[in-house]
């Protein structure tokens, strides 16, 4: 990846400026960690590349088709740009595999965290500081407690920060959750969604999408199959089958789910070490038993 001309820099999460990276991620699953790092990644880029006026974050399972002209237009009047899961009330309230879409968004948040647009400003800096701190401590996938990684915090941000623009453009963030409301066509300019220029497709849950391709929206099929073809093409260069290195203690033993749960639910336990990866499952069980102060996240 370091020799790939499409990348200006490759930075490891542990090198992005977290005060204590190991302590921060130990309580999280791999998926939660990826979401919890978004705020710090944006802060890292924002601070290091200080000559750049605009910064955009997009999830890694996204394919960009055209430039983000509407985002640049939004930056004329706002500093922060979000895209919602839905742009209008759906006639069919279910996703392509039957889940009630509107209830889903109440649970996971009305804003999708797969895209964040930022313009350099004081308000942006306040937002990044606020969001990063929340994700360091509370980016759990825990619907019972009203938490869904980074996304539920973005719903709160709509009230807490005044300089946010919600970009309701059907060409952005096309995905399984709104594909029933985004009819895809093609013309000389390329793909369009509901007649407006296509900007990016978010291939979240790509294999589920592949298995539930909407028959009444036929051009979704070649878009999905082309993406899967690219995925296969670059598997050797960017393999995805390796196990997450942070699934193991420093001695190589696998971290049990109960050990992560202990650090998630017991704040007193987190004061007993500066690096939980130096411990073991047995040591964590003992420490957790001795320090019974708990916060209920489930």
Structural notes for this entry:
The protein contains 11 helices and 11 strands. The longest helix has 16 residues, at 122-137. A 4-stranded mixed β-sheet has the order 1-4-3-7, covered by helices on one side. Strand 5 and strand 6 form a beta hairpin. By secondary structure, the chain is α+β, with helices and mostly antiparallel strands.
| Rg calculated over all Cα atoms | 21 Å
Placed side by side, the strands forming the largest sheet appear as 1-4-3-7
| End-to-end separation | 39 Å
Structure class: alpha+beta
Estimated share of beta-strand residues: 5-15%
Topology order in helix (H) and strand (E) letters: HHHEEHEHEHEEHEEEEEHHHH
Unreliable runs: none
- Major sheet summary line: 4 strands, mixed
| Average of the residue pLDDT scores | 92
Shape: globular
What is the share of helical residues?
Answer: 25-40%
How many strand elements? 11
């Amino acid at each position: 990846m370091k020799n790939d001309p499409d990348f200006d820099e490759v930075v490891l999460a542990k090198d992005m400026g977290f005060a204590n990276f190991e302590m921060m991620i130990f309580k999280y699953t791999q998926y939660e960690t990826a979401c919890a790092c978004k705020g710090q990644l944006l802060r890292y880029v924002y601070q290091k590349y200080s000559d750049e006026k605009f910064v955009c974050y997009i999830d890694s399972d996204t394919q960009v088709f055209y430039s983000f002209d509407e985002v640049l237009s939004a930056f004329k009047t706002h500093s922060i740009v979000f895209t919602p899961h839905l742009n209008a009330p759906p006639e069919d309230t279910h996703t392509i595999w039957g889940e009630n879409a509107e209830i889903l968004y109440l649970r996971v948040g009305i804003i999708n965290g797969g895209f964040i647009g930022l313009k350099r400003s004081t308000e942006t800096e306040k937002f990044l500081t606020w969001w990063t701190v929340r994700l360091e401590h509370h980016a759990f996938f825990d619907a019972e407690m009203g938490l869904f990684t980074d996304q539920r915090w973005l719903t709160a941000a709509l009230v807490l920060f005044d300089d946010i623009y919600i970009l309701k453009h059907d060409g952005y963030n096309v995905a399984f959750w709104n594909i029933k409301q985004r009819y895809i066509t093609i013309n000389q300019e390329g793909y369009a969604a509901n007649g407006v220029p296509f900007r990016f497709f978010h291939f979240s849950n790509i294999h589920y999408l592949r298995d539930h391709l909407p028959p009444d929206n036929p051009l979704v099929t070649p878009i999905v199959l082309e993406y899967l073809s690219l995925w296969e093409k670059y598997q050797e260069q960017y393999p995805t089958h390796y196990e997450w290195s942070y699934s193991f203690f420093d001695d190589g033993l696998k971290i049990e789910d109960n050990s992560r749960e202990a650090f998630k639910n017991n704040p007193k336990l987190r004061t007993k070490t500066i690096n939980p990866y130096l411990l073991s499952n047995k040591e964590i069980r003992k420490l957790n038993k001795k320090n019974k102060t708990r916060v209920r996240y489930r």
